[in-house]
Amino acid sequence: MPTTPQRRALRTLLDSGELIVAPGVYDGISAHLTKRTGHVAAYLTGAGVAASGFGLPDIGLVTGSEMAERARVLADALGEVPLIADADTGYGAPINVVRTVRQYEAAGVAAIQLEDQAFPKRCGHLPDKQVVDADVFEQTLAAALDARSDAGLLVVARTDARASHGLDAAIERAHRYAAAGADVIFVEAPQGVDEIERIARDVEAPLLINLVQGGLTPIESARRLQELGYAIAIHPSDPLGRATFAMLEGLCALNGTDVADFLPTSPAEFFDLVGMAEWSALDTKLATT
């Protein structure tokens, strides 16, 4: 199958050695504005789609078909700008991953990101994450690589093992996923500049780093990340966070309330705005029933 201009563009950007800065997009206007302000790539943020599109926290509640349809909308709005698309855990067993990859590929994304969390997944900067065994995720990865009809579709392998198993285990998984054929490696939520530097030093593969406002990872400059050799820096929360602040400011001005009472300072507080506490209470109730 012939590849697409967007996939060729992303591969060319990767091969150039220049850091790719990809803002988080989650709806039509965020995609159009990313394109019109001259960004060379965009990142479909699952957290942003959950919150903005469905009013849900990022705890595995949005389905694969809902995400694939949003990917199609955003890829269309972005035009020639390549879209790196979050696909969580692939939404099931390897056979489900095959369907997910086919749907995302048909939607026009340039890269699909899969992670080794146990289902239901959680935002990478929330506590209490769990990961599957590395060999289980390697089955997911193998299914994704085999399902591509266009080898130009890049597969990003993300590990969340830093939170539960430590940095050594996360780097070991990064090596395994690169050896299994992933095009880009994503070690989620390094804690501290020293960990960002060590990942860059120890992992011999194109690297993606996730910079979340108020998250666990320090916000390093594009220049510093370029020096360290990172390939892609995604900023999933930046546009959505700014839009949320503007909406809160405007809504509070309408009824005279204090915007400071509502402003989130962490991912967990942001998700509380879309019902995290209520969903957590329901989860606890169901677990004890």
UniProtKB/TrEMBL annotation:
InterPro entries: ICL/PEPM, Isocitrate_lyase_ph_CS, Pyrv/PenolPyrv_kinase-like_dom, Pyrv_kinase-like_dom_sf. GO terms for molecular function: oxo-acid-lyase activity. It holds the Pfam family PEP_mutase. This is Carboxyvinyl-carboxyphosphonate phosphorylmutase. The lineage of its organism: Bacteria, Bacillati, Actinomycetota, Actinomycetes, Mycobacteriales. It comes from the Bacteria. It comes from Mycolicibacterium madagascariense. Coiled coil: none annotated.
